[in-house]
Amino acid sequence: MMSLLELFLEAGSLKKLPRTGWLLRGVINPESIADHSFRTALIALFLADELRAKGIEIDTEKAIRMAILHDLAEARITDVPLTAQKYLDKGKGEREALMEMLSSIGRGDLLSLFDEYENETSIEGKLVKFADRMEMLIQAYEYEKAGFRNLDEFWGAVEKLRENELYEYFGDLIEDLVRLKRKVK
Questions:
Q1: How many helices and strands (H and E) does the chain possess?
Q2: Which residues of 124-142 are buried (b: 16+ CB within 10 A; e: fewer)?
Q3: Under a CB-based contact definition with an 8 Å cutoff, are residues 58 and 84 in contact?
């Protein structure tokens, strides 16, 4: 049985593990998985509040919990880049690692949050998936603005965001980001 302290220490590796996709595209000193998870949770917080203000029923706390947990398993399996994902079942691997981590502290109940995120079976899951992709696009923009190139493959997420039902509410943010990207030389 793992203690909470051991889980916290293991989760700390997320601060040291870089997002692999950026490394493979030549980004020097890329963001860590923890950096990405933090901004994803921040985006989820504010977008959930926006939805509530528009009268949409959403559990903000649940969304934030989901966002915080969405990449925790990468402390064990690391960040698997898109180029490798076609050969591996990343979702299954992440789910198994997270199940083991959470069960070892008696919190297997939290695994359902990962499942809702991964399968987008709740409004909170759809929101966190939206926030996750939006965060990646913001990061791609920031890297391009800093002079890194060859990041166009990441912008393919725009189409997935346009297909998400929450695009109806936050499409302007995505399209503003696309316009900013076009201005980067």
A1: 11, 0
A2: bbbbbbbbbbbbbbebbbe
A3: no
Encode pLDDT of 12-60 as tens digits.
999 999 999 999 999 999 999 999 999 999 999 999 999 999 999 999 9
Q: How far apart are CA 126 and CA 169, in angstroms?
A: 12
Q: Which two tokens stand for residue 164?
A: 């998400």
Would you list the DSSP string of 69-137?
Answer: HTTTTHHHH----HHHHTTS-HHHHHHHHHHHHHHTTT-GGGHHHHHHHHHT-SHHHHHHHHHHHHHHH
CA 169, CA 166: separation in Å to the nearest integer? 5
The amino acid at 15: K
Question: In residues, how long is the chain?
Answer: 185
Q: How open is the CA angle 109-67-28, to the nearest 5 degrees?
A: 135
Domains of the chain: 4-183 (1.10.3210.10)
**Is pTM beyond 0.90 here?**
yes
